[in-house]
Amino acid sequence: MTTGRTICHPRSMTRDLPLPGGCNCGEVRYLITQPILTTYICHCHLCQKRTGSAFSMSVVIPADGFDLARGKPLRTERRLAGGARIFAHVCPACHSRTHTQREGRKTVNVRAGTLDDTSWVRPVAQFWTSSAQPWAVVHGDILSYAEQPTDFTPLLIAWREQSK
Ligand SMILES: [Zn+2]
Ligand SMILES: [Zn+2]
């Protein structure tokens, strides 16, 4: 009998890099090549509209950790109230949104559902609970913000803690 030996790794919040993903039809494929910074869901009305669902889910990574492996996503643009531009990238064939980037930011938000393996993705935070559908609010060990947080530091820390 072997003792004190771990045969299976406990289920971890991280996965070996690179992490592959892509659009619905397969024309756009990408690889995440750098460690994830954090994950969150957003219950704001815009995200509800955009997704046609209750919330959106983001996996935040360093911008140079996103490698387009196949296809040429279309770039759509919207302007925030403050004037900053947000670019969303969609498959030209099936229009799945794969990732978004705010102008000038060194991070990219990958749409969590476009990852090939979503089994490990858990949000460490939720935004805009003030406009959430009541049943969709996550209770328990998660950072909650009534609106948009101004400081992402707690999210980075929470992800690091949970990824240990
Ligand atoms: Zn597609
Ligand atoms: Zn939102």
Automatic annotation (TrEMBL):
Residues 19-136 form the CENP-V/GFA domain. Pfam families: GFA. It comes from the Bacteria. One of its GO terms (molecular function) is carbon-sulfur lyase activity. Keywords: Lyase, Metal-binding, Zinc. The keyword Lyase applies. Transmembrane segments: none annotated. Belongs to the Gfa family. This is GFA family protein.
